[in-house]
Specification:
With 527 residues, this protein is mostly helical. 57% of the residues lie in helices and 0% in strands. Pfam families: GT87.
């Protein structure tokens, strides 16, 4: 996008090159949001069920007072969480009979760990029993475990169902918070790549408002079955404000939530690499270092007391991750099943292979983030003043690629890990088409996984054959790999990126499209 006429010139020599943009810049009032039925083919097709796509004579912005986008989106998310609650309810009482947890696909770690972590005895995580999760998730589990244990003791009843329902309610609140924050990110849709300490507000908000993107998270089919398998929604809810505050130019607040997210689930640590790469590219290193340092301090403050008081319990999480063999459904499991390669039974060998491939992937993503579109964006390729054209890779795009490759090459890939990728995928590539294909592959794997668990657990021949399970795991792997390829394509060709909404280059001889709302020119009079 070329700079507007009011775009500021080069920053003065005394201006700090790494100062964050001011956070008080607000989107102009009355700026209409992008209509999904005009920007997405799948949304346009689906709109036929409710009257068709947004028309030329529709009110823009719509004149609604209650059913504004955030309320419609949150209602959709609450319906999805209610369906998940019903889907897991048969397993909430415990005492699973005849492999009910697999035949009904209602297994949840939350209910299983009520006894495995001795929460049913009132044990305090780390103090009385080592926990296999990072500290903040352990505290989350422990606080709700203590509440359920004490309620069960007073009422003289089993606290297990109470524990599960308490966790479900809090996790649904976390899920709703993640949806609301993602909506805010896309409603503002600010640019963070503009050079200079005082960017023009018109450039900051040159991308269209896209509040409806949050519907992809609220209505994602896989949420119906994975929302309460484990405590991952807690970490997702903590990670989303990181992107919001970074977009608003508040690195300390961004680092605060990043540190909390890492203390809940370690995958959020992977966001720091893309953050620093883009900071180096844009010569705005100070804000990135502030966010990273704040995250490190927050993580240390949360982990330090536990590591000091109960070091063996604290180390349990790290020991388990290094000792675990190849898990069900990973790429390594599929490769072993297809090739029969015996070395893949060796966890140390797989560890080395995984670390090597993941390191190479990170180097490739770093090069992509640093060099993609550098000639267009100015800098080291001959332009004295960096351009304001919207071509710099977006933080969410690089974060999605790093987390996705971590799962693609990792030796553990639980079915609920899809929740890590969901908001990142929406932020990186908010297009319904292949998103639904990926969701279908995830659902195929989810139900195949429990069919495989039934096959190895029951002794009466139930379950699914190994070949079908390998096909499901391979389809999930390939779907995520294709999502990565599509994100890379949009980094290399920014005009394909729906978030930027850059005008397409017209083909030779093709008529130019009029902007939405612009009247057609009057026909010329006949000579």
């Amino acid at each position: 996008m070329p700079p507007s006429a009011s775009a500021p010139g080069p920053a003065p020599d005394h201006a700090p090159n790494d100062a964050p943009p001011p956070s008080g810049i607000e989107r102009p009032a009355g700026d209409p949001p992008a209509a999904p039925t005009l920007t997405d083919r799948v949304a346009r097709f689906a709109s036929g069920l409710i009257g068709g796509p947004f028309g030329e004579h529709a009110a823009d912005p719509p004149r609604r007072t209650f059913w504004i986008p955030i309320r419609v989106i949150l209602l959709t998310g609450l319906i999805a969480f209610a369906v998940n609650w019903l889907q897991k309810y048969p397993c909430s009482a415990g005492g699973w009979v005849d492999w009910q947890q697999y035949t009904g696909a209602c297994y949840t770690d939350i209910r299983a760990l009520w006894g495995a972590e001795r929460l049913n005895e009132g044990a305090v995580p780390y103090q009385d029993h080592p926990v296999e999760y990072p500290v903040l998730t352990g505290w989350f589990m422990g606080v709700l475990g203590q509440i359920a244990y004490r309620i069960g003791s007073v009422a003289n009843t089993d606290g297990g169902p109470i524990f599960w329902h308490l966790n479900a309610v809090v996790l649904f609140v976390c899920g709703a918070a993640a949806i609301a924050v993602l909506h805010r990110i896309r409603r503002d849709n600010r640019r963070t790549d503009i050079p200079g300490p005082n960017p023009d507000p018109a450039l900051v908000h040159s991308r269209p408002s896209r509040p409806w993107d949050a519907m992809m998270l609220a209505a994602a089919p896989v949420v119906l079955v994975t929302a309460t398998v484990n405590w991952d929604l807690f970490a997702v809810a903590l990670s989303m404000p990181f992107f919001l505050y970074w977009q608003r130019g508040r690195p300390v607040m961004a680092g605060l939530f990043l540190g909390l997210a890492v203390a809940a689930k370690f995958y959020a640590l992977l966001f720091i690499g893309p953050l620093l790469i883009l900071a180096l590219r844009q010569k705005k290193l100070l804000p990135a270092l502030q966010a990273s340092a704040t995250a490190a301090v927050v993580w240390a403050l949360i982990n330090g007391p536990v590591a000091y008081l109960w070091p063996e319990s604290w180390m349990r999480f790290f020991e388990l991750n290094s000792e675990r063999p190849v898990d069900w459904g990973t790429g390594w499991y599929v490769l072993r099943g297809v090739t029969g390669w015996e070395r893949l039974w060796d966890s140390e060998f797989v560890n080395d292979m995984y670390l090597g491939l993941f390191a190479l992937s990170c180097l490739g993503i770093a090069a992509l983030g640093y060099f993609a579109q550098r000639r267009t964006a100015g800098g080291d390729f001959g332009l004295k003043t960096p351009s304001t054209e919207d071509v710099v890779p977006r933080l969410a795009q690089l974060c999605f690629l790093v987390v996705a490759t971590f799962l693609l090459f990792g030796k553990v890939w639980s079915q609920q890990y899809v929740l890590w990728l969901l908001p990142l995928a929406v932020l990186a590539r908010p297009k319904w088409g292949f998103f639904l294909v990926w969701q279908a592959a995830e659902l195929f794997y989810f139900f195949s996984f429990y069919g495989k668990m039934l096959q190895v657990s029951a002794e009466d021949g139930r379950g699914i054959p190994e070949g079908l399970f390998l096909a499901a795991a391979a389809s999930r792997w390939l779907a995520v790999a294709v999502m990565c390829a599509l994100v890379v394509q949009e980094i290399l060709i920014p005009r394909l990126d729906a978030v930027r909404s850059l005008p397409k280059r017209p083909s030779r001889g093709a008529p130019l499209q009029r902007p939405r709302g612009e009247a057609a020119p009057a026909p010329a009079a006949a000579p």
